[in-house]
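> tool_call: predict_assembly(chains=two)
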Amino acid sequence: MDDSNCQIYEDEIQSLEEEIKLLTEKYEDKQQESTFFSDEEILMSIKSLQEEFQGESKGHESPLDLKAQLESLETDLSFLMKFTGIQFRSHSKKTVERTGNRTVQKHRLSGNCHSLSFQLEFHLLEMQSAESVSAVVTDLHIVMASAEDSDITKFVSRAEERGSLLTFFRSLSTYAEWYEHRRRTFLHFK
Amino acid sequence: GVFAHLELLEAQAYKAAVKQEESEQQKEKLAGLRARVQELRLQRDDLRAKLDLQQKGQLGKEGVVSDPAQPSPRAVVEWKIKNLMSMLQVFYLTGISGKLTKRGVCFCISTAYEGTYLDSYHLDLLTKPEVQIYRHSLPVFIPLQQIAKKYLQTDIRRFLAVLSDHLNAYVGRRYQADQLQEHFSEQIEGTLQRNSLCNLLVFNYNVSSTSKTFPFHARLLYRDLCCSLPTEVDVSCASDAPAALAEMAAAHVGLFRRMALHKAFSSFSSAGESMD
């Protein structure tokens, strides 16, 4: 009799712990996605963190580690944008579904690849398994500034049809470089 | 007589005491569990209320909402870090991402079949005194040295683009073969043979109609390593097969040439061929 009571409590404890984990993730996602801090606010925060550090560090990451991590991420990002020619102007994501080991987020992205501007949105489904995380893109919508260019409309519609986000970026990158090269050559002969 | 009786009483008393202790431990355990359940219920309800408030805060406001409580500098920096990591994740989705290292750059080439992301590969490059490959995780059958010889020194972007084409095509071919084995296993007779580069596939398959099944033999060769569609397709049926079957084989050749393998199978499986 008592054993079965124990089991009932233990089952409830497990389900509550799972629910708490999910709710916490949902809450933190929303916090992250709905807040925005300007660059000045970030700089000020780094400064006050450093001042705080004169005191103690309580076993979290030290403020210097946070600052170093921030700077390393910023340099990597700026390198990638320069190297690939892909500059992102804005990016927002919103968690649409979070259950067990499945997360769906809606992404909105705008930017340009060399001189070609794009705006896109898609759903990203991520599933956590024992060894890895799998990612699938669906509902891809792409809007290009230079919509009259038939070459562009061709690879855009093909990408949308199949949800091929990666192929879109690879094609865009190649095309934009060629376009840029052609533009410069043209100017050279003017 | 008396002593035996006393011993018996002692034994009984001892058993009763043990039982009493067990039942008390059980009561304590239950009480502990009950307390834990209460604690977790409170925590859960608290979170639900917080989420509810969050939702309400969003209603009727355009654009951005900031936390009513003044966030700590640490929270602000942590927010920015998460934000930058999101951005880097987006680069992963574009196919080329990476990070700077002490002596160069470590690139990450991601691959995908349509919307499904598959394996990613790393390429650790040194940039001084000249660009060299320090280490990598590319499979041996990708002609890395050949491609590096052609482009690495003169045009790194092109080098990565060509590698990306090879890798994406390889992964795409492999994905199609995997999908075929996974979703059409009843139609495949025996094993599907493939090489490590997945650019040569040989298999036997059946097409059924009403009560009969018709065997076919297929050979797909993908000569263009940057392509995930075959350049040469052979489909044959038994030499004594009726003309209609030979026509079907020819039709399948066309399908395999222009469509992904698993999609081609999907199209003729669902069409429910009529052989009569």
